[in-house]
Write a structure and sequence with these properties.
Layout: H1 2-22, H2 27-31, E1 76-80, E2 101-109, E3 115-123, H3 127-139, H4 157-162, E4 188-190, E5 198-199, H5 229-236, E6 240-241, E7 249-250, E8 253-255
Antiparallel strand pairs: 1-2, 2-3, 4-8, 5-7, 6-8
Length: 259
C-alpha cells in the first residue's frame, strides 16, 4: 500500500514538471533566470555639460585724453548807447547826437596774457573799422592794458591816460586847441596811452609814467611803432596814425581823418 502511494506522488511531480516546461505557468520562474535588458536612459537624465568657452574679456574703459582748450575767439557786439551810459563824456552842444553813437563790447588780449572784455563808444559809421582792427589785435595776442568808457574817469582824459586806458568817444576839444577833437565825433581811438604817449613838439610828456616810452622805435609790449602791423591794420580801414604828425607826436592816436 505504501509503495503504491509513493508511486502516485512521484508521478504527480513528474507531471507538474512536464507541465511547467510546456506551459505559461513557468514564465514567472524562468524570467528570474533570464538576464534583464538595461532600462533605456531617460532623456531627462543630466548630461555632463561640455566645457564652455571662456567669455572674451571686455576692453578696458578708456578715458579720452583732454584736448587743450584755447582761449575764446574774438567777439564783438555793437549796440545803441543811451544818454544814461554817457553821464560825463556827452553833453548838450556836442558835435554828434547820442543816437549817432554806438557801444562796442568786445574781446581784447591783456598784458596778463589772458582774454578780457572791454567797451568803446564810437560813431556808428566807424564800428566796422574798429571791430576789424581790434579783431586783428586780439588774434595777434597784441596786448591792451585796459578798455573802459572814459565815463569811468568822469570824462577826464588826463585820468584815463594815467590809468593806461584805451578809449574812444569823449566830447572834448583837441589837445592844445579850442576846436573839437576827433574823439568828440566818435571817430578816434587812443590805444595804450602810457606805452604810446602824446609827445609835445619840444619832446616833453604830460604823464610821468610814460616817460620811458617817449621815443620811437621802441621794442616793448603794447607799443606802436612806425610802419608796424598795428599802423598797417588801421591804414587798411582808412584810419591814420598820430605818430607821423609833424611837430607833436600822438603815438596812441588813430582817427578816421588822420588828425
Amino acid at each position: 500500500m505504501k509503495k503504491a502511494q509513493l508511486a502516485v506522488r512521484m508521478g504527480t511531480s513528474v507531471a507538474v514538471v512536464a507541465g511547467c516546461l510546456s506551459g505559461a505557468a513557468c514564465s514567472a520562474s524562468t524570467s528570474a533566470l533570464t538576464p534583464s535588458t538595461p532600462a533605456p536612459v531617460s532623456s531627462s537624465a543630466a548630461v555632463p555639460a561640455s566645457p564652455s568657452t571662456p567669455p572674451t574679456p571686455s576692453a578696458e574703459p578708456t578715458t579720452a585724453s583732454p584736448s587743450p582748450t584755447g582761449p575764446p575767439k574774438f567777439s564783438a557786439k555793437v549796440s545803441r548807447v543811451t544818454r544814461k551810459q554817457l553821464p560825463y563824456s556827452w553833453r548838450p552842444g556836442c558835435p554828434v547826437p547820442v543816437q549817432d553813437l554806438r557801444l562796442i563790447t568786445m574781446s581784447y588780449w591783456g598784458f596778463d596774457d589772458k582774454p578780457h572784455t572791454g567797451e568803446l563808444v564810437v560813431n556808428k559809421d566807424g564800428t566796422d573799422a574798429i571791430v576789424n582792427v581790434f579783431g586783428r589785435l586780439y588774434d595777434w595776442r597784441w596786448p591792451i592794458y585796459k578798455m573802459q568808457l572814459v565815463d569811468a574817469y568822469k570824462g577826464s582824459d588826463f585820468d584815463s591816460i594815467e590809468a593806461d586806458n584805451t578809449s574812444a568817444f569823449n566830447c572834448r576839444p583837441a589837445t592844445g586847441s579850442s576846436s573839437w577833437s576827433q574823439h568828440a565825433y566818435g571817430r578816434a581811438v587812443d590805444i595804450n596811452p602810457r606805452e604810446n604817449p602824446y609827445v609835445s613838439a619840444d619832446g616833453s610828456l604830460a604823464h610821468k609814467n610814460a616817460r620811458k616810452f617817449g621815443t620811437r622805435p621802441l621794442d616793448a609790449p603794447g607799443v606802436i611803432n612806425p610802419g608796424d602791423r598795428v599802423v598797417k591794420a588801421f591804414a587798411k580801414v582808412g584810419w591814420g596814425w598820430g605818430g607821423i604828425w609833424s611837430g607833436a607826436k600822438d603815438f596812441q592816436h588813430f582817427s578816421e581823418s588822420g588828425g
